[in-house]
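Weekly structure sync - notes
Attendees: PM, LS, DV (DV joined late)
Agenda: review two folding runs queued last week.

Item 1: First target. Sequence and structure tokens pasted below for the record.
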Amino acid sequence: MDNKIKRGIFALLTTILILVLAAFFIQKGILAPPNKITDITGLMVADATSSQHIPIEKTPTTPVVLFCPRDNCTAQLAFLIDKSKAVNCAFFDLSEPVVLHALKTISKNTSKRVRLIMDNDTKKKTLLNDLDVVYDESDFFMHNKFCIFDDRIVWTGSFNPTKGGGEKSNNNVIAIASTVLAENYHKEFEQLWNKKFGKQKEAQDINHKMQYNDIVIETYFCPQDHCAEEILSELKEAKESITLMAYSFTDNNMEKVLLEKQKQDVKIQGLFEKQQLSDYSAYHALKKAGVPVFIDTNPSLMHHKVFIIDNQTVITGSMNPTRRGDEGNDENILIIHDPQIASKFLEEFERLSR
């Protein structure tokens, strides 16, 4: 056989082997896929300026939107942990071995620090005994799923780093390199770290609204910032459409707004988690009113807590639209005004509701 042909075959087989190994390592959470979280690491975040009383950040990065399991949220989170010197996370649940390994590895480095806040109902002390952890002992949930990396990157959404959360359930994450957002979340984290949970927390002097390049982002923490009121305000402004993906939805006021908007010829559509269709679920009233509502077919969970308004605005975070989520639990939401990010969430809705 001609040597040139042999070299070509060898090169082809080598390339295939590299791709197979890379896919294997990504699946196992050893490598983070490119063009996702890697895009926001190692870049400087510009100091914020101020205009019209809100801070403005200009940065070469864009928010990274991930959908689990297809974007391997576990590997992305482990990658960020590995690249950071200061990691502050508040998780409702945490048991994923890859993430635990990353946290324990950097915690052994004296130049780095890891702090965790966990809900007591999901306490796994044997898994977390090598880490610095504060537990919420209250009757409500510490239901957050956020991290702050090096006071400049915020990770939040519906994803709990567990095997089910990363490999089976439908979840979303948004990661943003922003010192303004990081400061907001840091103030919330410090209250929780000092064991102030639920109604014990005080409303903080944070930048609830900021401009990130051309994107306006709003931040709210529950219960002190009255998250449901902020969501209702956005829903009432809808002119064309409201799309929702809800793990649990029992908030009567939000349900009423959706029904009223339907009468105003606003297009309403929703996706609901099948395990949460109690008698109190908004699914029943919406279906009775003729709203196109779909039941998730994932054998595991559809765990999103998302509203998409007029194809322009996304509301996401840890809070289910329930009274408990608004008034009792420790939660966080982002309201993101950006059509490109909205389109990503609409694609997720279309994919899951087929």
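Item 2: Second target, run right after the first with the same settings.
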Amino acid sequence: MAGIYIHIPFCKQKCTYCDFHFSTNTSYYQRMVNAMCIELKERNEELRNYPLESVYFGGGTPSILPDQLTGQIFGAIRQNFDLSQIKEITLEANPDDITAEKVQLWKSLGVNRLSIGIQSFDEVDLRWMNRAHTPEQSLNSIRTAQENGISNLTIDLMYGLPEMSPERWKKQIQTAIDTGVQHISAYCLTVEERTALYKKVQREELIPSDQELQSEHFDLLINTLTENGFLHYEISNFGKPGFLAVHNSNYWKGQHYLGIGPSAHSFDGVSRTWNVSNNLTYMKELENGVAPYEREVLTAGNQFNELLLTGLRTMWGVDLKKLGEILEISEEFNSKVKYYCEKNWMTREGTIIYLTSDGKHYADAIAEDLFEI
């Protein structure tokens, strides 16, 4: 199976914590969409032998595109790819963009899942984040989507925020549960150097939560959501049974995907490509018949490490048999697995290794320690 990721590189305004690729210049929407449609046509052969199971519109902010341009992209997808086996089409949306009319349009185009960028239900947080919506708009957007037939909803939340007590975080989680959404993605705040947040932290205008408090927030998240019927199927993702994200799950399982748009990445099992992270260059290259990406063929070591890193983050774990088909597993590797099992950070069932609840706090560090260089 395979998926398509569509990167819409536009936002209304820049959030203080964000270092993703986007622009607030709306003057060239049409030119950008035209370029993306060219790329969809030029690269349609890359997934020819793999049934398309998911399409994901991310960004940036896909929900700010004018209706006709969203429709143009959908038209190009349908013209160049077989959607007969599609299971999930997700569109990321900000609360302030969601109206009954928008939801009906997206549904008519094929969207069956919305990912709403809530981030916080607290006005204090939204202000320093420089988000464009209010807590009231967050709740209204969820209700509007539900009332207009979107039965598969996911929202994004953030924890480890400045001055966020465990009690305040627990209230955020409960508010999310009470909305009736089927899926929640929750991410710990990270301070990236190229952001306004980094400057605020340097000036001590904001003080992020320390690691101990972040860990407490993470445990609260896991315990509260699992007690309320959510499956913790990936480090940052929780879903009700039947509502796990198809697109992202396929990422973590090593399935093929095609990335369209500036800065988008693609993966075909043995190589990875990444599009240029410059809007003007991206458009010019496609207009002139030039491929807007670079390609890297993955070594056996790269493939081994990637399968290990992504698999350990999930409830499906990592199959040592599959790892062994890529590279022979060393005695040192086996010794480290035994060590993490004895430490109760990892468990093993047959050929599958999983992280325990304690081990999930150190997922990336454990994976890196097990990497084959």
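Discussion on item 2: Residues 2-251 form a domain with the TIM Barrel fold (CATH 3.20.20.70).
Action: LS to circulate a short write-up before next sync.
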